[in-house]
Automatic annotation (TrEMBL):
Protein's name according to its UniProt entry: Trehalase
Lineage of origin: Eukaryota, Viridiplantae, Streptophyta, Embryophyta, Tracheophyta
Family: Belongs to the glycosyl hydrolase 37 family.
Record InterPro entries: 6-hairpin_glycosidase_sf, 6hp_glycosidase-like_sf, Glyco_hydro_37, Glyco_hydro_37_CS
Name of the top EC class for this enzyme: hydrolase
GO BP field: trehalose catabolic process
Amino acid sequence: MALATGLSHKCRVTVIPTTPLVTFLERVQETALGTFGGKNFDAKLYVDLSLKFNLSKTEKAFDGLPRSDENGTVSVKDLKEFIATYFADAGDDLLHYDPEDFAPEPEGFLPKVKNPEVRAWALEVHALWKNLSRKVSDGVLEQPELHTLLPLPEAVVVPGSRFIEVYYWDSYWIIRGLLASKMYETAKAIVTNFIFLVDTYGYVLNGSRAYYTNRSQPPLLSAMVYEIYNRTCDVDLVRKALPALLKEHAFWNSEIHKVTIQDAQGCNHNLSRYYAMWNKPRPESSTKDKESASKFLSNSEKQQFYRDIASAAESGWDFSTRWMRNTSEFTTLSTTSILPVDLNVYILKMELDIAFMANVLGNKATMESFLEAAEARKKAINSVFWNGEMGQWFDYRLANGTICKESETWQACNQNQNVYASNFIPLWIDLFHSDAALVENVMGSFQSSGLVNVAGIATSLINSGQQWDFPNGWAPLQHMIVEGLLRSGLKEARSLAEDIAVRWINTNYVGYKKTGAMHEKYDVQKCGESGGGGEYIPQTGFGWSNGVLLAFLEEFGWPEDRSIGC
């Protein structure tokens, strides 16, 4: 896929063009907002529709709809009729699929869960994999131009609710749950799809839609392959994955992502940032993005804002005060001017995983070069992000306007000293959690940070109304911090890890019993309450919540005499 570029080197404007179908569906989306109004309006629904006829016929019919004289709106009756005639429902191009490796009670399932009530619930959550399994319909493969859904070679597991396609970083925790459910083939199929995306686009897309081709998401493909290999010893999977992982590593270290910071000693450190290849409203939220951008007067400011909003979506944390210069003003999003702690931890993990896999395949040269790269990134993470006084790693804000420079000099005042769960994500990686003195220091900071609440770890301490902020807790953040503490081997760290996992399991259980569903996020202040905020209504399903729950139960179990609930 060609990159449309202008300017030179670091400052070039990288945009990956969208498809004519997406552009047309954005017009339908805008018309629908005018017709149906903003209450319960979900913009994504309209860009997920697939055509029954070709685009030119559909567009012609759309252009011929009668419109009111004052503001050009289409009547509710006419628009409903048009949509029913010319479109298949969103989601019709993904068919329910029965995974062949699903068993109602797999052999050796959660052996440490002794409490019958918890066990029965865990089996219900395990059964949700069947509800969330899909296969791309033949229609998408035969006539891709009628769909925004992208063709994929294998079956998928979707997050649930409005997220009816496969998503990149969600899939890591879905896979961790599938491994607990002994569904190894389903897990491998997800990885095969991602390898296909890397082969096609050069990176894993945010999700399997035509409107997601301009950005990725937290790069966890290597971590998926590593976990599956650990359970299955499937060398063929490693052999198939390694070339894609090398390509993905190059993508995250390419010109648009790589930034060099010079420390006080004059040493240069290369780190990566999120940088979406897009400078227009996100098609899946086009009407909302235009409204947010209306505060900007110049076109270049609007374009920069659109890039920063898409880059925040690429981070997976859409949205959070973490990306804002002013935590109370959404339009101060400046994601591309921030070097994030967690992204660089994921790339460090990728480097270690690639070295591990190269070793499995007997490729010593690749192994050595990636161990070197990992060592350099560890050093960079400690030089640029680490704050010894606070015992945390802080995101680093690039000095204003230096985004196009080759490098800039580190300054302490550019560390974002607000407390976010991401400040503790380095603990997830062996290179950090194997240092006992460091773990003790960070653990003390974590326990006094205010993040640990009655029902889990909060995402931040700022209640902004954004969903990746207080009081929401998200499954992946609980999991990485708990797993890091656990793997450190320190007794107090293990006990803290288990305490957090038990709080999280309790809130999941009570929420499930109350609503009959697993939720996308939870309110960590109140046991059993789902989270809120953000740009869409809270979702259920839910891929990564199910995965983390099963992974926690596999790790910690649940004794027969321990009650469950708030």
